[in-house]
Amino acid sequence: MLMIVYYAKQTGEDKIYWSGIVLFLLFYFVFMAVVWSIILAVKIFGKELRFGGVVWRNSIRNRLAGMST
User: Of 9, 44, 49, 66, whose Cβ has the fewest other Cβ atoms within 10 Å?
Assistant: First the structure.
């Protein structure tokens, strides 16, 4: 996508330039929306995380059920 913007800027084609910028921003915001959706779903519905000998029970569902440490 950035190559489209670079090519359009070099050739002076404004229509392709702006469409490249719009595609880049659209990709960025959709990607960030997916990332935040996954983070929110894990925070609400996640059971527990285990790493080494440490266990985190950090979901909202576990805190409401009184399972947090």
Answer: 66
